[in-house]
Design goal:
This protein is α+β, with helices and mostly antiparallel strands. 51% of the residues lie in helices and 10% in strands. It starts with a helix and ends in a 19-residue tail after the last helix. One of its GO terms (cellular component) is peroxisomal matrix.
């Protein structure tokens, strides 16, 4: 994990091919990838920092080529100046703006297991970005790989149904990678890929047994994940009986975070389901709300806090919270805001009927505000919401106590949400959201309606 040694090895992978013959650069790149795999996480971090810092775009070279291009453009109308000069300076500028590590990743992607290597590498890179967002070299490398993976993967992934008869290695990876609802064992796994359920995986030709993304589908529309996950005998519908397809888990490998494959994936799965069940009318999700609780806790003390909005927490709500606060032993502050913070900081309130009754309407209104009004730029702050709304779905219904697992309580205080893909409206919803930041919302949920249309 010596930066100087890593720098020397990386430099050898980026030598133009013509100077070393056809095979040598690929052999060196393969050895470099193997070296990376032997490093511990600290060593891999040094590798990535060296790659990002020393093999990115040279600002000095880019500025020089930009000046040459501007000069050539200014004289381009002069008949005495050859047109080829402008073409050459444009190409030189384009090359100067391409990071040196582009050649490393191009060659790495062509090695056996190269795409998997790059996806796993980006998983660690995302951790480095989260630790230090001001490291512009690391941020630039992450964005570069995000765009590369998107270009490499869209349109080339194979959609396959995963069943109990699929290869054991594929089933094992499905179990290990599942990120929405943990798979408890082989019996649970067998149920998820068995009769009454459908599971689809997207595979790259270089990794035929490893799903990059997988989608789990139920044919019943419950309000709670528990009802799907613990149904002892999922109903087996005939071709003519099926009316709804519920996407209750969509998981991608962690190194693909931020890579926009959503529209491509959803369309492929919907097409496959329509072929299998022509009678399907509803395509909807039962989705987690992973950022809700952390957002809510961040509202305490925030100058523009949603907690100050009387349409969300009314005067009557505050009085009821104060009454609860006076019941809490050994507390020096029974104000409504202190009581509310104490309650949502754990999940104990679920087991107290009075706290449960007081918190339910408050949390439902806050969740609606979070889903529809909390933004990053003009887009939804919640990553799962942004994924589905960008793909053309509408926010359909908040499901109270939709996921009471420890993970569900920690992330969203137990709530889940349905995103409904009304196929006739998907393109319009996508355009309105990506262009104007407008979120499509159903009229059927009274908790969502007051926040509909607010930007």
């Amino acid at each position: 994990d010596n930066p100087n040694v890593i720098r020397q090895i990386l430099a050898k992978t980026m030598v133009p091919q013509m100077s070393q013959g056809d095979l040598m650069p690929m052999a060196i790149t393969k050895s470099c990838c193997e070296l990376y795999e032997t490093l511990d996480e600290a060593g891999k971090s040094v590798f990535l920092q060296t790659l990002a810092r020393d093999f990115g775009v040279s600002a000095k070279d880019a500025q020089a080529k930009a000046r040459e291009f501007i000069k050539a453009s200014a004289t381009g109308s002069d008949a005495s100046v050859p047109g080829q000069l402008l073409v050459n300076t444009e190409m030189a500028l384009r090359n100067a703006l391409t990071p040196a590590y582009d050649l490393f990743f191009h060659r790495a992607s062509r090695c056996a297991g190269g795409i998997k290597f790059i996806i796993d590498l980006r998983h660690l890179l995302l951790k480095l970005v989260a630790q230090n967002r001001s490291d512009h070299d690391i941020v630039a490398l992450n964005r570069y790989l995000r765009d590369k993976l998107q270009n490499w993967l869209v349109g080339v992934l194979d959609l396959q149904r995963i069943t109990w008869n699929s290869p054991a290695s594929t089933l094992e990876k499905l179990s290990n990678y599942e990120a929405v609802h943990a798979i408890s064992g082989w019996d649970d796994l067998k149920k998820r890929v068995g009769p009454g359920r459908r599971c689809y995986g997207f595979f790259h030709h270089s990794m035929p047994y490893e799903p990059l993304v997988f989608v789990q589908v139920s044919n019943t529309w419950p309000c709670r994940a528990w009802n799907i996950l613990h149904d002892p005998k999922p109903q087996l519908l005939t071709v003519d009986d099926a009316r709804c397809a519920i996407f209750y888990s969509i998981t991608s490998q962690r190194g693909l975070a931020g890579v926009e494959l959503g529209s491509f994936l959803i369309k492929r799965v919907v097409g496959e389901l329509q072929t299998a069940y022509p009678s399907l009318e509803v395509f909807c999700t039962l989705s987690p709300i992973p950022g809700f609780r952390s957002w809510l806790l961040g509202q305490f003390g925030h100058p523009a806090s949603a907690l100050k909005n009387p349409a969300i927490i009314s005067l009557q709500d505050r009085k009821r919270l104060e009454q609860l606060g006076r019941r809490i032993p050994d507390t020096s502050d029974s104000s409504w805001i202190a009581t509310f913070k104490q309650l949502v900081s754990s999940s104990e309130w679920m087991h107290d009927p009075d706290s449960y009754e007081v918190l339910r309407p408050i949390l439902l209104r806050l969740c609606a505000d979070y889903l529809l009004c909390a933004k990053r730029g003009k887009f939804a702050l919640d990553p799962v919401a942004n994924f589905h709304i960008r793909n053309g779905a509408q926010v359909h219904r908040i499901n109270w106590m939709g996921d009471t697992s420890p993970k569900g309580m920690k992330e969203s205080l137990g709530m889940m949400v349905n995103y409904n893909y009304i196929l006739a409206n998907v393109e319009h919803n996508n355009y309105n959201y990506t262009r104007n930041g407008v979120i499509a919302v159903s009229d059927s949920d009274p908790w969502l309606s007051p926040f509909k249309g607010k930007l």
